[in-house]
Q: What sequence folds into this?
DNA sequence: GTGATATAGTTCAATAATGAAACTGTATCA
DNA sequence: TGATACAGTTTCATTATTGAACTATATCAC
């Protein structure tokens, strides 16, 4: 790939990413049920995927400090969506879990997001959509690997 | 496209987007010169692209309220990167522009981001990268159109 | 065993982004 | 000229975030 082409691709990628992210952010913000912020939804979604997890996992996953997680989780506990439960063996560890209300909330949000994305993905041919996702996943993997390497 | 395939694509897209955005965010945060936040960089970049612009343009572009822009611009003015200049004819309007330092800062950031993206895009064949970008741009257009329609 | 050290999570203070509502000044229009 | 529209700011409350100090608990080396 010659330098000029690369430069153009970078420019186009920057623009497209910025635009898609901005749109997604606005759409999510507007359609997210009941004053859930996007960060809060991310935390709920992660806990759901793990059933049980601790603050440190979340901090690693969200790429923020543990004190940021404490703040978000406290708000979710106040809303009755998440519970805290100390571990029996190692009392330093506090397990986080979704309350029944929390589970219901995640299901609602997932459905709303699914409907929205289905609308967009529906615009594309299956072949184009598949190719796109595959490249996107490769990019995600390359970036994650790079990030991991940088942390060492 | 059948429902099952669609559901899988949505799941994969959600994951990939989340992962790429998180990585980009961390990488930008760490490599961005001199305590510039990503929002601040977005504002600088937009002003650069327009030479002159006002708060309202920026609010529209960033999809936030005008008071959020006032706050960000004030911080950038304090840092000496942006200037404010009232319009001669319509004194309600205040033009924003980059100071020489602001221009230098944007150039530095663009170079840093370009180097980073070049590293990632370099992993792909030209054909794959081109196809990806094209689909991404289509997606951006569809989303922007939808958003525009929703605002009406 | 006991003291040093590591770990999990919280608290606190500061900075930033944001929305909403009230407000200031200016322009426009009937 | 008076009502209205518009551009931008101010103020206030909420949320997210970092980083440092801190608490409580576990582990490890001697």
A:
């Amino acid at each position: 790939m010659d330098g000029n082409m690369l430069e153009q691709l970078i420019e186009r990628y920057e623009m497209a990413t910025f635009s898609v992210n901005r749109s997604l952010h606005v759409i999510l913000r507007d359609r997210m049920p009941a004053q859930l912020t996007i960060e809060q939804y991310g935390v709920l979604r992660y806990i759901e995927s793990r059933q049980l997890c601790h603050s440190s996992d979340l901090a690693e996953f969200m790429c923020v400090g543990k004190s940021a997680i404490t703040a978000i989780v406290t708000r979710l506990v106040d809303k009755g969506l998440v519970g805290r439960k100390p571990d029996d063996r190692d009392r330093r560890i506090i397990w986080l879990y979704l309350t029944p209300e929390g589970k219901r909330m995640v299901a609602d949000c997932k459905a709303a997001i699914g409907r929205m994305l289905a609308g967009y993905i529906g615009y594309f041919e299956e072949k184009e959509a598949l190719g796109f996702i595959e490249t996107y996943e490769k990019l995600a993997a390359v970036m994650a690997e790079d990030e991991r390497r940088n942390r060492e």
